[in-house]
Design a protein that fits this description.
Structural class: alpha/beta
Radius of gyration: 21 Å
CATH class: Alpha Beta
Strand order of the largest sheet: 1-2-3-5-4-6-7-8-10-9
CATH topology: Rossmann fold
CATH architecture: 3-Layer(aba) Sandwich
Strand content: 15-25%
Number of domains: 1
Helix content: 25-40%
Number of helices: 10
């Protein structure tokens, strides 16, 4: 009965917002009513990142870390992504090395299939990650941790039969290995479905209290579950002697770019963060109201965020935070935000401005951010500072151009 009532409530909210939930692959005719021209962006005001919730200026690093940053993490958790609740029954983790291939890619690398099993009296869930590290270095390797749409049980992470040096999912694995980097793949689907609406399977039930069958309004949605999985993968990496867990770059594209930012904002163990076309609820500013907005997100993908987020549909001006403050929570660690010029749905200008405004905090912490409020020309990468950005030609994808910039940025900050 409770589940039926929740479904009815979700339908009623969609009617109230005058749109209906649609499948992720449905034609995007309904997207035509969003702003796609700079001249039509309404005036907006961003919340100041270096002013506390009490209205007090933040003027030194200690005040940022002890006061303002925790305030922001709490607001993003409770109002947007949802917090991970304390489980009524402790959740334990069992690690199993399923197989090891030390001749992967003709002996260039070692591939490990690692199973993380989360279990308690409520059930068990397996997260199967891949760890690929270069052979022959004689020391632990820095790695890219990839939040992945494809599972590790399919062939998406096998060598591409027609593109030597690439995996089927487009990762330039040979170049990563040649530069001394490894790759860690964390699949989202092991913990939660792409567009979960029931939360009766996967990781969430292990955290339910007696009688609970759905997350509360401030509790974790899909993106927070993916982020939680990224941190559990990091727990494992700290025990893997082939990996230097102090030099892990986390990367995600689109929805998983949103997850990468939220993962790293909460978990400071990640040394470098890359967001590729993360858009709405990722790097882009809510209050610009360009491309995808809160209304579109909470109706097309109603539980990517927590249920509290729906309060701000058509009302982003009342949201007391914006995404530049999420990016600021990553400081002083190196941050790369990448856009695609034709991907207006993700708002390239809003992604740049978010990184620009987050740079206030980077400067407070003695790092170099993006000084100009004007985005660079398409095809120009700004990579000299601790906050990097590019907007390349093309649409919603991760291309070789992106990887070249990411690798050069990571090499400068993580290679020793």
């Amino acid at each position: 009965m409770k589940l039926q009532w929740l479904r009815l409530l979700a339908w009623g909210m969609a009617c109230l917002l005058r749109v209906h939930p649609v499948a992720a692959d449905e034609p995007k005719n309904h997207d035509l009513d969003v702003i796609r021209e700079e001249s039509k962006v309404p005036p907006y005001r961003l919340p100041p990142v270096l002013v506390s919730a009490e209205g007090r200026p933040i003027t030194d690093p200690q005040d940022w870390f002890q006061n303002r940053r925790p305030q922001l993490i709490a607001l993003f958790g409770n109002l947007l992504y949802g917090v991970v609740p304390s489980p009524e029954v402790p959740v334990r983790t069992t690690t199993e090395l399923l197989k090891t291939d030390r001749r992967f890619l003709g002996g260039q690398a070692t591939r490990k299939d690692v199973q993380l099993r989360f279990h308690n009296a409520r059930g068990e869930v397996d997260l199967r990650i891949l760890v690929i590290t270069p052979n022959g270095s004689g020391k632990p390797s820095p790695v890219f941790l990839l939040h992945s749409f494809s599972g590790t049980r399919d062939d998406g992470h096998d060598p591409h039969p027609e593109r030597p040096g690439f995996l089927r999912n487009g990762v330039p694995i040979q170049e990563l290995l040649q530069r001394g980097f490894g790759l860690v793949v964390v699949p989202q689907s092991d913990l939660v479905r792409h567009n979960e609406v029931e939360f009766l399977k996967g990781i969430h039930p292990l955290f339910y209290r007696e009688g609970q069958s759905f997350p509360q309004s401030y509790e974790w949605g899909v993106i927070s579950a993916v982020a939680w999985g990224g941190s559990r993968a990091m727990d494992y990496l700290e025990s893997d002697t082939d990996v230097d867990a102090r030099r892990v770059a986390i990367l995600g594209h689109s929805k998983l770019g949103k997850a990468a930012l939220w993962t790293a904002a909460q978990d400071t163990r990640f040394a470098l963060v890359i967001s590729a076309q993360s858009g709405c609820a990722g790097a882009a500013l809510w209050k610009r109201d360009f491309g995808e907005n809160m209304e579109k997100m909470v109706t097309r993908f109603p539980y990517w965020l927590c249920r509290n987020a729906a309060r701000f549909a058509r009302n982003e001006a009342d949201l007391p935070i914006d995404q530049h403050e999420l990016l600021a929570c990553i400081a002083p660690r190196p941050l790369y935000v990448a856009s695609g010029a034709e991907d207006l749905w993700a708002d390239p200008v809003g992604e740049y401005l978010s990184a620009h405004h987050a740079s206030e905090v980077y400067r407070l912490l003695g790092k170099k951010g993006l000084d100009s409020p004007t985005p660079p020309p398409v095809g120009t990468a700004l990579t000299e500072g601790d906050v990097a950005y590019h907007n390349r030609p093309g649409g919603h994808s991760v291309e070789p151009y992106d990887w070249r910039q990411f690798l050069a940025f990571a090499e400068r900050h993580l290679r020793r």
